[in-house]
Design a protein that fits this description.
34% helix; Trp_halogen; Flavin-dep_Halogenase_NPB; Flavin_halogenase; alpha+beta; FAD/NAD(P)-binding domain; 7-stranded mixed sheet
Length: 550
Amino acid sequence: MTAAEGAQRRILIVGGGTAGWLTAAYLAKTLGANLSGGTEITLIESSDIGIIGVGEGTFPTIRSTLAAIGIDEARFLRESTATFKQGVHFVDWAETPAPDASPTQALGAVAGHTHYFHPFNFPHQGNGPELLPYWLLGGAGDLAFAEAVTLQKAVADAARGPKRPIDPPYAAPLNYAYHFDANRLAVLLRTVAIELGVRHRVGTVTDVVLDGSGAVARVETREHGSLSADLYIDCSGFRAEIIGRALKVPFKSYQDVLFNDRAVALQVPYDRPDAPIPSYTVATAHEAGWTWDIGLNDRRGTGYVYSSRHTDDARAEQVLRRYLGPAAEGRDVRLLKFDSGCRTAQWVGNCVAVGLSGGFFEPLESTGIMLIEVAAHMIAQYFPWGETGLDSAQTAASMAATARTYNALMGKRYERIVDFLKLHYCITRRTDSAYWRDNADPATIPESLRDRLAVWAHRPPGRFDFVADHETFLPASYQYVLYGMGFKTDLEPARALHRRMDEAGHEFRGLRTVAPQAVSSLPTHRELVEEVYRNGFRPPQAAPAVGGRR
Protein backbone atom coordinates (compact mmCIF):
# COMPACT_ATOMS: atom_id res chain seq x y z
CA MET A 1 0.00 0.00 0.00
CA THR A 2 1.40 3.42 -0.91
CA ALA A 3 1.33 6.49 1.29
CA ALA A 4 -1.33 8.03 -0.89
CA GLU A 5 -3.54 4.95 -0.62
CA GLY A 6 -3.16 4.47 3.13
CA ALA A 7 -4.68 6.37 5.98
CA GLN A 8 -3.47 9.89 6.67
CA ARG A 9 -0.32 9.90 8.77
CA ARG A 10 -0.66 11.42 12.23
CA ILE A 11 1.86 13.14 14.49
CA LEU A 12 1.12 14.04 18.10
CA ILE A 13 3.43 16.59 19.73
CA VAL A 14 3.25 16.66 23.53
CA GLY A 15 4.32 20.05 24.84
CA GLY A 16 4.51 23.55 23.43
CA GLY A 17 7.14 26.21 24.01
CA THR A 18 9.89 26.83 21.50
CA ALA A 19 10.62 23.11 21.05
CA GLY A 20 7.01 22.08 20.42
CA TRP A 21 5.95 24.95 18.23
CA LEU A 22 9.14 25.19 16.18
CA THR A 23 8.94 21.46 15.49
CA ALA A 24 5.23 21.70 14.71
CA ALA A 25 5.63 24.63 12.33
CA TYR A 26 8.57 23.09 10.48
CA LEU A 27 6.91 19.69 10.10
CA ALA A 28 3.60 21.26 9.08
CA LYS A 29 5.34 23.16 6.30
CA THR A 30 7.54 20.24 5.24
CA LEU A 31 5.01 17.42 5.53
CA GLY A 32 2.00 19.35 4.22
CA ALA A 33 -0.30 19.51 7.24
CA ASN A 34 -2.78 21.65 5.29
CA LEU A 35 -2.57 19.65 2.05
CA SER A 36 -4.69 16.76 0.85
CA GLY A 37 -2.70 13.61 1.55
CA GLY A 38 -0.40 15.47 3.92
CA THR A 39 0.29 14.71 7.56
CA GLU A 40 -2.15 15.41 10.37
CA ILE A 41 -0.25 17.17 13.17
CA THR A 42 -1.71 17.80 16.61
CA LEU A 43 0.02 19.61 19.46
CA ILE A 44 -1.24 19.39 23.02
CA GLU A 45 0.12 21.66 25.72
CA SER A 46 -0.89 22.38 29.27
CA SER A 47 -1.97 25.86 30.28
CA ASP A 48 -0.45 25.20 33.72
CA ILE A 49 3.13 24.77 32.52
CA GLY A 50 5.09 27.83 31.52
CA ILE A 51 8.05 28.30 29.18
CA ILE A 52 11.50 28.19 30.76
CA GLY A 53 12.55 30.90 28.30
CA VAL A 54 16.04 31.89 29.40
CA GLY A 55 17.86 30.68 26.29
CA GLU A 56 17.31 33.77 24.20
CA GLY A 57 20.15 33.26 21.72
CA THR A 58 20.45 31.31 18.49
CA PHE A 59 22.99 30.18 15.91
CA PRO A 60 22.89 31.29 12.22
CA THR A 61 21.10 28.09 11.17
CA ILE A 62 17.89 29.60 12.57
CA ARG A 63 17.62 31.87 9.54
CA SER A 64 17.24 29.01 7.07
CA THR A 65 14.80 27.28 9.42
CA LEU A 66 12.56 30.35 9.76
CA ALA A 67 12.75 30.96 6.03
CA ALA A 68 11.80 27.34 5.32
CA ILE A 69 8.76 27.68 7.59
CA GLY A 70 7.80 30.80 5.65
CA ILE A 71 8.03 33.40 8.43
CA ASP A 72 8.83 36.89 7.17
CA GLU A 73 12.05 38.09 8.83
CA ALA A 74 10.70 41.52 9.73
CA ARG A 75 7.63 39.93 11.29
CA PHE A 76 9.84 37.59 13.31
CA LEU A 77 11.96 40.49 14.54
CA ARG A 78 8.97 42.64 15.54
CA GLU A 79 6.84 39.96 17.18
CA SER A 80 9.76 38.36 19.07
CA THR A 81 11.31 41.75 19.95
CA ALA A 82 14.40 40.22 18.38
CA THR A 83 17.77 41.79 17.66
CA PHE A 84 20.77 40.61 15.67
CA LYS A 85 23.59 38.45 16.99
CA GLN A 86 26.98 38.36 15.26
CA GLY A 87 28.80 36.12 17.73
CA VAL A 88 29.91 35.86 21.35
CA HIS A 89 32.21 38.27 23.18
CA PHE A 90 34.10 36.37 25.91
CA VAL A 91 35.53 38.24 28.90
CA ASP A 92 37.97 36.82 31.51
CA TRP A 93 37.88 33.22 30.25
CA ALA A 94 41.58 32.95 29.44
CA GLU A 95 43.17 34.77 32.38
CA THR A 96 42.24 35.78 35.92
CA PRO A 97 41.17 39.45 35.94
CA ALA A 98 43.53 41.85 37.64
CA PRO A 99 42.91 42.20 41.41
CA ASP A 100 41.94 45.85 41.05
CA ALA A 101 39.78 45.34 37.93
CA SER A 102 36.20 46.47 38.48
CA PRO A 103 33.19 44.46 37.21
CA THR A 104 32.80 45.25 33.53
CA GLN A 105 29.87 45.38 31.17
CA ALA A 106 31.76 47.57 28.72
CA LEU A 107 32.20 46.55 25.10
CA GLY A 108 35.63 45.81 23.67
CA ALA A 109 38.87 45.79 25.66
CA VAL A 110 38.85 46.97 29.28
CA ALA A 111 41.92 47.39 31.48
CA GLY A 112 42.50 44.42 33.76
CA HIS A 113 40.31 42.06 31.73
CA THR A 114 41.13 39.68 28.87
CA HIS A 115 38.67 39.18 26.05
CA TYR A 116 38.17 37.48 22.69
CA PHE A 117 35.45 37.25 20.07
CA HIS A 118 33.82 34.23 18.41
CA PRO A 119 32.29 35.73 15.24
CA PHE A 120 29.86 33.95 12.95
CA ASN A 121 31.72 34.86 9.76
CA PHE A 122 34.23 32.30 8.53
CA PRO A 123 37.86 33.43 8.26
CA HIS A 124 38.34 35.34 5.02
CA GLN A 125 40.16 33.57 2.22
CA GLY A 126 39.34 35.21 -1.09
CA ASN A 127 41.89 34.29 -3.76
CA GLY A 128 44.72 33.97 -1.28
CA PRO A 129 45.90 31.15 0.97
CA GLU A 130 44.18 29.97 4.12
CA LEU A 131 45.09 32.68 6.63
CA LEU A 132 45.28 30.67 9.86
CA PRO A 133 48.75 29.13 9.31
CA TYR A 134 50.16 32.52 8.42
CA TRP A 135 48.54 34.12 11.46
CA LEU A 136 50.13 31.41 13.61
CA LEU A 137 53.50 32.20 11.99
CA GLY A 138 53.18 35.89 12.88
CA GLY A 139 52.05 37.23 9.52
CA ALA A 140 49.35 39.47 11.09
CA GLY A 141 51.56 40.91 13.81
CA ASP A 142 49.88 41.15 17.20
CA LEU A 143 46.29 41.25 15.92
CA ALA A 144 43.86 38.84 17.60
CA PHE A 145 42.82 35.99 15.34
CA ALA A 146 39.19 37.09 14.89
CA GLU A 147 40.30 40.64 14.13
CA ALA A 148 42.97 39.52 11.66
CA VAL A 149 40.80 37.20 9.54
CA THR A 150 37.34 38.79 9.46
CA LEU A 151 35.63 42.18 9.34
CA GLN A 152 33.00 41.10 11.82
CA LYS A 153 34.86 41.92 15.01
CA ALA A 154 35.38 45.53 13.92
CA VAL A 155 31.72 45.84 12.96
CA ALA A 156 30.48 44.30 16.21
CA ASP A 157 32.87 46.36 18.36
CA ALA A 158 31.46 49.52 16.74
CA ALA A 159 27.89 48.44 17.75
CA ARG A 160 26.90 48.17 14.08
CA GLY A 161 24.39 45.74 12.69
CA PRO A 162 25.34 42.91 10.30
CA LYS A 163 23.13 44.24 7.49
CA ARG A 164 21.10 47.18 6.25
CA PRO A 165 17.34 47.64 5.84
CA ILE A 166 17.90 47.52 2.06
CA ASP A 167 19.39 44.01 2.27
CA PRO A 168 17.03 41.13 1.47
CA PRO A 169 15.37 39.20 4.31
CA TYR A 170 17.60 36.51 5.81
CA ALA A 171 20.58 37.68 3.72
CA ALA A 172 23.40 40.01 4.68
CA PRO A 173 27.01 41.00 4.05
CA LEU A 174 27.87 39.43 7.43
CA ASN A 175 26.68 36.18 8.97
CA TYR A 176 24.25 36.52 11.88
CA ALA A 177 21.70 34.94 14.18
CA TYR A 178 19.32 36.57 16.70
CA HIS A 179 18.54 37.38 20.29
CA PHE A 180 14.82 37.28 21.10
CA ASP A 181 12.15 37.01 23.77
CA ALA A 182 11.51 33.25 24.12
CA ASN A 183 7.89 33.65 25.22
CA ARG A 184 7.06 35.95 22.32
CA LEU A 185 8.78 33.61 19.86
CA ALA A 186 6.69 30.68 21.09
CA VAL A 187 3.51 32.72 20.54
CA LEU A 188 4.59 33.61 16.99
CA LEU A 189 5.50 30.02 16.16
CA ARG A 190 2.15 28.83 17.53
CA THR A 191 0.27 31.32 15.34
CA VAL A 192 2.21 30.29 12.25
CA ALA A 193 1.94 26.57 12.97
CA ILE A 194 -1.83 26.81 13.32
CA GLU A 195 -1.97 28.79 10.07
CA LEU A 196 -0.05 25.92 8.47
CA GLY A 197 -2.63 23.38 9.63
CA VAL A 198 -1.46 22.20 13.07
CA ARG A 199 -4.32 21.26 15.38
CA HIS A 200 -3.90 22.90 18.77
CA ARG A 201 -5.20 21.27 21.94
CA VAL A 202 -4.92 22.75 25.43
CA GLY A 203 -4.90 19.98 27.98
CA THR A 204 -3.00 17.95 30.53
CA VAL A 205 -1.50 14.54 29.81
CA THR A 206 -2.48 12.14 32.59
CA ASP A 207 -1.02 8.88 31.26
CA VAL A 208 0.98 7.37 28.41
CA VAL A 209 -0.20 3.86 27.50
CA LEU A 210 2.22 1.44 25.85
CA ASP A 211 1.30 -1.49 23.65
CA GLY A 212 2.59 -5.04 23.95
CA SER A 213 5.76 -4.24 22.00
CA GLY A 214 6.64 -1.31 24.24
CA ALA A 215 5.66 1.36 21.70
CA VAL A 216 3.26 4.18 22.54
CA ALA A 217 -0.35 3.10 21.96
CA ARG A 218 -2.06 6.30 23.07
CA VAL A 219 -1.82 9.34 25.30
CA GLU A 220 -4.55 9.92 27.87
CA THR A 221 -5.54 13.52 28.58
CA ARG A 222 -7.80 15.08 31.17
CA GLU A 223 -9.66 17.32 28.71
CA HIS A 224 -9.63 15.40 25.42
CA GLY A 225 -9.60 11.74 26.39
CA SER A 226 -7.38 9.38 24.38
CA LEU A 227 -5.14 10.73 21.61
CA SER A 228 -3.23 8.44 19.27
CA ALA A 229 -0.80 8.89 16.40
CA ASP A 230 1.70 7.12 14.16
CA LEU A 231 4.55 9.16 15.60
CA TYR A 232 4.77 10.85 19.01
CA ILE A 233 7.14 13.78 19.61
CA ASP A 234 7.99 14.48 23.24
CA CYS A 235 8.49 18.23 23.73
CA SER A 236 7.44 18.17 27.38
CA GLY A 237 10.66 19.71 28.65
CA PHE A 238 12.55 18.42 31.67
CA ARG A 239 9.46 16.38 32.67
CA ALA A 240 10.09 14.09 29.64
CA GLU A 241 6.55 12.67 29.90
CA ILE A 242 6.98 10.03 27.20
CA ILE A 243 10.70 9.39 26.66
CA GLY A 244 11.53 9.46 30.37
CA ARG A 245 8.48 8.63 32.48
CA ALA A 246 6.75 6.19 30.14
CA LEU A 247 9.56 4.68 28.07
CA LYS A 248 12.13 4.84 30.90
CA VAL A 249 15.01 5.87 28.63
CA PRO A 250 17.97 6.65 30.92
CA PHE A 251 19.48 10.10 31.13
CA LYS A 252 23.24 10.33 30.56
CA SER A 253 24.78 13.10 32.63
CA TYR A 254 27.93 14.93 31.58
CA GLN A 255 28.27 16.58 34.99
CA ASP A 256 31.78 15.18 35.39
CA VAL A 257 32.84 17.17 32.31
CA LEU A 258 30.51 20.19 32.31
CA PHE A 259 30.14 21.26 35.94
CA ASN A 260 27.48 23.95 35.67
CA ASP A 261 24.08 22.84 36.94
CA ARG A 262 22.28 26.01 38.03
CA ALA A 263 21.53 29.52 36.86
CA VAL A 264 20.06 32.69 38.32
CA ALA A 265 18.41 34.89 35.70
CA LEU A 266 17.31 38.52 35.71
CA GLN A 267 15.86 40.88 33.11
CA VAL A 268 17.00 44.49 33.44
CA PRO A 269 16.31 47.73 31.55
CA TYR A 270 18.84 49.80 29.65
CA ASP A 271 20.15 52.86 31.42
CA ARG A 272 18.57 55.00 28.71
CA PRO A 273 16.12 54.35 25.83
CA ASP A 274 18.70 55.01 23.10
CA ALA A 275 21.49 52.92 24.65
CA PRO A 276 23.59 50.96 22.12
CA ILE A 277 22.50 47.36 21.66
CA PRO A 278 25.43 44.94 21.47
CA SER A 279 25.03 42.66 18.45
CA TYR A 280 26.58 39.74 20.31
CA THR A 281 26.20 37.83 23.55
CA VAL A 282 28.55 39.01 26.28
CA ALA A 283 29.80 35.97 28.23
CA THR A 284 31.84 37.03 31.28
CA ALA A 285 33.64 34.43 33.38
CA HIS A 286 33.43 34.60 37.18
CA GLU A 287 34.68 32.59 40.13
CA ALA A 288 32.35 29.59 39.65
CA GLY A 289 30.71 30.08 36.25
CA TRP A 290 29.85 32.83 33.80
CA THR A 291 27.23 35.49 33.11
CA TRP A 292 25.32 35.88 29.89
CA ASP A 293 24.22 39.36 28.82
CA ILE A 294 22.11 39.81 25.69
CA GLY A 295 20.50 42.92 24.30
CA LEU A 296 16.92 43.03 23.09
CA ASN A 297 15.27 46.18 21.82
CA ASP A 298 13.71 47.13 25.16
CA ARG A 299 15.72 45.25 27.80
CA ARG A 300 18.71 43.08 28.60
CA GLY A 301 18.40 39.40 29.38
CA THR A 302 21.06 38.38 31.89
CA GLY A 303 21.96 35.47 34.11
CA TYR A 304 24.74 33.65 35.92
CA VAL A 305 25.38 29.98 35.08
CA TYR A 306 27.34 28.22 37.80
CA SER A 307 28.35 24.99 39.51
CA SER A 308 26.62 24.20 42.80
CA ARG A 309 29.68 22.15 43.74
CA HIS A 310 31.81 25.29 43.66
CA THR A 311 29.47 27.93 45.07
CA ASP A 312 25.99 28.32 46.57
CA ASP A 313 22.82 30.04 45.38
CA ALA A 314 23.19 33.06 47.66
CA ARG A 315 26.73 33.75 46.47
CA ALA A 316 25.65 33.25 42.85
CA GLU A 317 22.99 35.92 43.24
CA GLN A 318 25.60 38.25 44.74
CA VAL A 319 27.88 37.72 41.74
CA LEU A 320 25.09 38.50 39.27
CA ARG A 321 23.97 41.60 41.17
CA ARG A 322 27.56 42.84 41.45
CA TYR A 323 27.98 42.41 37.69
CA LEU A 324 24.76 44.29 36.94
CA GLY A 325 25.18 47.06 39.49
CA PRO A 326 22.28 49.51 40.01
CA ALA A 327 20.24 47.94 37.17
CA ALA A 328 19.50 44.93 39.41
CA GLU A 329 18.21 46.88 42.39
CA GLY A 330 14.68 45.96 43.45
CA ARG A 331 14.45 43.08 40.96
CA ASP A 332 14.00 39.41 41.87
CA VAL A 333 16.16 36.70 40.34
CA ARG A 334 14.84 33.45 38.97
CA LEU A 335 16.60 30.22 40.00
CA LEU A 336 16.91 27.36 37.53
CA LYS A 337 18.35 23.87 38.13
CA PHE A 338 19.49 21.51 35.39
CA ASP A 339 21.82 18.63 34.59
CA SER A 340 23.93 18.85 31.43
CA GLY A 341 23.32 15.67 29.49
CA CYS A 342 20.98 13.78 27.20
CA ARG A 343 18.87 10.66 26.87
CA THR A 344 20.84 7.59 25.87
CA ALA A 345 18.41 7.32 22.94
CA GLN A 346 16.36 10.11 21.40
CA TRP A 347 14.10 7.95 19.20
CA VAL A 348 12.55 4.86 20.78
CA GLY A 349 9.81 2.91 19.04
CA ASN A 350 7.38 5.49 17.69
CA CYS A 351 8.51 8.34 19.97
CA VAL A 352 11.13 11.05 19.38
CA ALA A 353 12.33 13.41 22.11
CA VAL A 354 12.98 17.01 21.03
CA GLY A 355 14.26 19.89 23.15
CA LEU A 356 14.75 19.62 26.90
CA SER A 357 13.13 16.18 27.05
CA GLY A 358 15.95 14.83 24.89
CA GLY A 359 18.84 16.73 26.44
CA PHE A 360 20.15 20.04 27.65
CA PHE A 361 23.45 21.85 27.98
CA GLU A 362 24.16 25.17 29.59
CA PRO A 363 23.35 28.09 27.24
CA LEU A 364 26.98 28.63 26.23
CA GLU A 365 27.09 28.98 22.40
CA SER A 366 23.27 28.67 22.11
CA THR A 367 23.03 24.94 21.46
CA GLY A 368 19.44 24.53 22.73
CA ILE A 369 17.41 25.87 19.82
CA MET A 370 19.99 24.64 17.33
CA LEU A 371 19.38 21.06 18.52
CA ILE A 372 15.63 21.57 18.12
CA GLU A 373 16.25 22.69 14.54
CA VAL A 374 18.41 19.65 13.81
CA ALA A 375 15.80 17.31 15.28
CA ALA A 376 12.97 18.87 13.27
CA HIS A 377 14.96 18.64 10.03
CA MET A 378 15.88 15.01 10.67
CA ILE A 379 12.34 13.98 11.65
CA ALA A 380 11.04 15.52 8.43
CA GLN A 381 13.61 13.55 6.45
CA TYR A 382 13.06 10.28 8.31
CA PHE A 383 9.28 10.56 8.69
CA PRO A 384 7.84 7.03 8.31
CA TRP A 385 5.48 7.56 5.40
CA GLY A 386 5.23 3.82 4.78
CA GLU A 387 4.36 2.70 8.30
CA THR A 388 0.56 2.80 8.24
CA GLY A 389 -0.86 -0.21 6.48
CA LEU A 390 2.06 -2.52 7.30
CA ASP A 391 1.69 -5.39 9.73
CA SER A 392 3.11 -4.88 13.21
CA ALA A 393 6.35 -6.80 12.59
CA GLN A 394 7.17 -4.74 9.50
CA THR A 395 6.29 -1.53 11.31
CA ALA A 396 8.51 -2.36 14.27
CA ALA A 397 11.46 -3.35 12.06
CA SER A 398 11.20 -0.21 9.94
CA MET A 399 10.83 2.08 12.95
CA ALA A 400 13.74 0.38 14.70
CA ALA A 401 16.02 0.89 11.69
CA THR A 402 15.05 4.55 11.50
CA ALA A 403 15.59 4.98 15.23
CA ARG A 404 19.07 3.43 15.07
CA THR A 405 20.14 5.82 12.33
CA TYR A 406 18.68 8.84 14.10
CA ASN A 407 20.17 7.90 17.48
CA ALA A 408 23.62 7.27 16.05
CA LEU A 409 23.72 10.70 14.42
CA MET A 410 22.22 12.59 17.35
CA GLY A 411 24.36 10.72 19.85
CA LYS A 412 27.54 11.74 18.05
CA ARG A 413 26.29 15.30 17.78
CA TYR A 414 25.76 15.48 21.55
CA GLU A 415 29.26 14.10 22.16
CA ARG A 416 30.83 16.67 19.85
CA ILE A 417 28.92 19.50 21.55
CA VAL A 418 30.28 18.34 24.90
CA ASP A 419 33.81 18.54 23.49
CA PHE A 420 33.26 22.02 22.07
CA LEU A 421 31.75 23.41 25.27
CA LYS A 422 34.49 21.86 27.40
CA LEU A 423 37.09 23.48 25.13
CA HIS A 424 36.01 26.89 26.46
CA TYR A 425 36.97 25.84 29.98
CA CYS A 426 39.80 23.34 29.85
CA ILE A 427 42.47 25.49 28.19
CA THR A 428 42.05 28.37 30.63
CA ARG A 429 45.03 29.76 32.48
CA ARG A 430 42.85 30.84 35.40
CA THR A 431 43.87 29.31 38.73
CA ASP A 432 42.06 31.72 41.07
CA SER A 433 39.34 29.27 42.15
CA ALA A 434 38.73 25.54 42.46
CA TYR A 435 36.17 25.84 39.65
CA TRP A 436 38.76 26.86 37.06
CA ARG A 437 41.45 24.53 38.39
CA ASP A 438 39.02 21.60 38.21
CA ASN A 439 37.99 22.54 34.67
CA ALA A 440 41.63 22.40 33.54
CA ASP A 441 42.22 19.03 35.22
CA PRO A 442 42.92 16.52 32.40
CA ALA A 443 40.77 13.95 34.23
CA THR A 444 37.68 16.08 33.44
CA ILE A 445 38.46 16.39 29.71
CA PRO A 446 36.93 13.77 27.37
CA GLU A 447 39.54 11.56 25.73
CA SER A 448 38.38 12.64 22.27
CA LEU A 449 39.08 16.28 23.12
CA ARG A 450 42.41 15.45 24.81
CA ASP A 451 43.51 13.71 21.62
CA ARG A 452 42.51 16.67 19.48
CA LEU A 453 44.32 19.14 21.71
CA ALA A 454 47.46 17.02 21.56
CA VAL A 455 47.37 17.08 17.76
CA TRP A 456 46.43 20.77 17.54
CA ALA A 457 49.54 21.70 19.51
CA HIS A 458 51.44 20.99 16.26
CA ARG A 459 48.90 21.78 13.56
CA PRO A 460 45.66 23.80 13.54
CA PRO A 461 42.18 22.24 13.35
CA GLY A 462 41.15 21.31 9.84
CA ARG A 463 38.18 19.79 8.07
CA PHE A 464 39.47 16.21 8.31
CA ASP A 465 39.23 16.47 12.11
CA PHE A 466 35.46 16.64 11.79
CA VAL A 467 32.65 14.47 10.42
CA ALA A 468 30.13 16.95 9.06
CA ASP A 469 26.96 15.08 10.08
CA HIS A 470 28.23 14.74 13.67
CA GLU A 471 29.19 18.37 14.13
CA THR A 472 27.21 21.37 15.22
CA PHE A 473 30.28 23.63 15.22
CA LEU A 474 32.59 23.77 12.22
CA PRO A 475 36.40 24.05 12.32
CA ALA A 476 36.29 27.87 12.29
CA SER A 477 34.44 27.91 15.62
CA TYR A 478 37.09 25.72 17.20
CA GLN A 479 39.78 28.01 15.77
CA TYR A 480 38.18 31.17 17.16
CA VAL A 481 37.91 29.66 20.65
CA LEU A 482 41.32 27.98 20.66
CA TYR A 483 43.27 31.02 19.56
CA GLY A 484 41.05 33.51 21.36
CA MET A 485 41.93 31.64 24.55
CA GLY A 486 45.63 31.79 23.71
CA PHE A 487 46.18 28.15 22.76
CA LYS A 488 49.60 27.58 21.20
CA THR A 489 50.06 25.71 17.92
CA ASP A 490 53.74 25.46 16.99
CA LEU A 491 54.07 25.63 13.21
CA GLU A 492 57.71 26.62 13.18
CA PRO A 493 58.93 23.13 12.14
CA ALA A 494 56.64 23.40 9.08
CA ARG A 495 57.37 27.05 8.22
CA ALA A 496 59.12 26.11 5.00
CA LEU A 497 55.89 24.56 3.70
CA HIS A 498 54.05 27.88 3.96
CA ARG A 499 55.52 29.81 1.05
CA ARG A 500 52.76 32.37 0.51
CA MET A 501 53.47 34.74 3.37
CA ASP A 502 53.51 37.75 1.04
CA GLU A 503 50.02 36.91 -0.26
CA ALA A 504 48.74 36.31 3.25
CA GLY A 505 50.24 39.60 4.41
CA HIS A 506 48.41 41.36 1.58
CA GLU A 507 45.12 39.79 2.74
CA PHE A 508 45.74 40.79 6.38
CA ARG A 509 46.47 44.38 5.36
CA GLY A 510 43.48 44.46 3.04
CA LEU A 511 41.11 43.38 5.79
CA ARG A 512 42.44 46.07 8.12
CA THR A 513 41.95 48.65 5.37
CA VAL A 514 38.42 47.56 4.51
CA ALA A 515 37.18 47.20 8.10
CA PRO A 516 36.57 50.95 8.67
CA GLN A 517 34.67 51.09 5.37
CA ALA A 518 32.45 48.23 6.46
CA VAL A 519 31.78 49.96 9.79
CA SER A 520 30.86 53.26 8.12
CA SER A 521 28.56 51.58 5.56
CA LEU A 522 26.44 49.78 8.16
CA PRO A 523 23.83 51.33 10.49
CA THR A 524 24.11 51.14 14.24
CA HIS A 525 22.48 48.03 15.59
CA ARG A 526 19.73 50.01 17.31
CA GLU A 527 19.01 52.07 14.16
CA LEU A 528 18.74 48.87 12.12
CA VAL A 529 16.39 47.17 14.55
CA GLU A 530 14.09 50.16 14.96
CA GLU A 531 13.94 50.80 11.20
CA VAL A 532 13.05 47.17 10.45
CA TYR A 533 10.43 47.18 13.22
CA ARG A 534 8.80 50.20 11.55
CA ASN A 535 9.16 49.45 7.86
CA GLY A 536 10.54 45.97 7.36
CA PHE A 537 13.19 45.22 4.76
CA ARG A 538 12.87 47.15 1.52
CA PRO A 539 15.62 45.99 -0.84
CA PRO A 540 16.29 48.20 -3.87
CA GLN A 541 17.03 46.78 -7.29
CA ALA A 542 20.74 46.57 -6.56
CA ALA A 543 22.34 47.30 -3.21
CA PRO A 544 26.09 48.06 -3.09
CA ALA A 545 28.37 45.57 -1.37
CA VAL A 546 29.57 46.34 2.15
CA GLY A 547 33.27 47.05 2.46
CA GLY A 548 34.08 45.32 -0.82
CA ARG A 549 34.67 41.93 0.90
CA ARG A 550 32.51 39.05 2.06
